TrEMBL record:
Enzyme class per UniProt: transferase
Gene3D superfamilies: 3.30.60.20, P-loop containing nucleotide triphosphate hydrolases (3.40.50.300)
Protein known as: Thymidine kinase
SUPFAM superfamilies: Glucocorticoid receptor-like (DNA-binding domain) (SSF57716), P-loop containing nucleoside triphosphate hydrolases (SSF52540)
Taxon lineage: Bacteria, Pseudomonadati, Pseudomonadota, Gammaproteobacteria, Alteromonadales
Length: 193
């Protein structure tokens, strides 16, 4: 029975690496996998999922208006899909998370979504919010703060390393803009509480 899985973490926990490894496992066993990634994150090239350790694979792009159910159904008619993988799942809309549920329930195809749980203000993204609420299985991928504790927050910083407290929820970047921290160090840096 297919299920919706949400693998979440702070930045630098290996979400894309884990996704690419899982997709490879399906493909190695002769099962077709459909990969999606957010169109707005093109740091590594359009239509590409890439990990910091050098793994990459081509992927279909999704935007807020994309219909993942219809696209998956179309691919499944020609390729008989074994699984759907979604990178940057925090950027899904509420409707797209519902589409993932339909892929699981109506097409009987597992969906594995990978994304951030919260933004730099400690607030959930829309996609993460509904994945946390509706996914069949939740799994936290862990990364560590500079102190060695589990990092579960992401701080956005300026070029001098000062925490930014205001701004748009989405500002694409990597280690040049963001740092993963434990709650204690996130609160100290961002004056969270």
């Amino acid at each position: 029975m297919a299920q919706l899985y949400f693998y979440y973490s702070a930045m630098n926990a290996g979400k894309s690496t884990s996704l690419l490894q899982s997709a490879y496992n399906y493909q190695e066993r002769g099962m077709k996998a459909l990969l999606f990634t957010a169109a707005l994150d093109d740091r590594f090239g359009k239509g590409k999922i890439a990990s910091r350790i050098g793994l990459s694979a081509p992927a279909e792009l999704f935007e807020p208006t994309s219909d993942l159910f219809t696209e998956t159904k179309r691919f499944n008619q020609t390729k008989s899909l074994g699984c759907v993988f979604i990178d940057e799942a925090q950027f899904l809309t509420k409707e797209q998370v519902k589409q993932c549920l339909r892929i699981v329930d109506q097409l009987n195809i597992p969906v594995l979504a990978y994304g951030l749980r919260t933004d730099f203000k400690g607030e959930t993204f829309e996609g993460s919010h509904y994945l946390l609420a509706w996914a069949d299985k939740l799994s936290e991928l862990k990364t560590v703060c500079h102190c060695g504790r589990k990092a579960n927050f992401v701080a956005r910083t300026d070029q001098d390393g000062n925490a930014l407290r205001d701004g748009a929820q989405v500002d694409i970047g990597g280690n040049d803009k963001y740092i993963s921290l434990c709650r204690k160090h996130y609160a100290e840096l961002s004056q969270f509480y």
